[in-house]
Please model this.
Amino acid sequence: MEQNLILYTIFGMSLITLLIKVIPAILVSNYKIPDYINKILEFVPLAVLSSMVIQFIIIDDGELNLSFTNEFLWASVPTLIIAIVFKSLFATIFVGLLSIIFIRYFGIF
Model:
């Protein structure tokens, strides 16, 4: 009985997820979205990703950590520079990882 409940739950959740994604797509497919709304929507992924990254950098154990010993804050400096200069996701991630490895390996903080 419990396995049937799990199966029904998975099926029901899949159906609901599909419906809440398909129905709006069907309703909006016949309308042309104005250019100013498209301009606004271009910034949504950037805003969401930025808020997640900034939260990861400055919050430590549920508290704001802007101290000199925040290794993520220091690692974000060269990472941000590389992101601005090269505009390459691979280079940005690579430099970010190398920065954290360097800081932790040499025990700078």
About this structure: Strands lie at 59-60, 63-64.
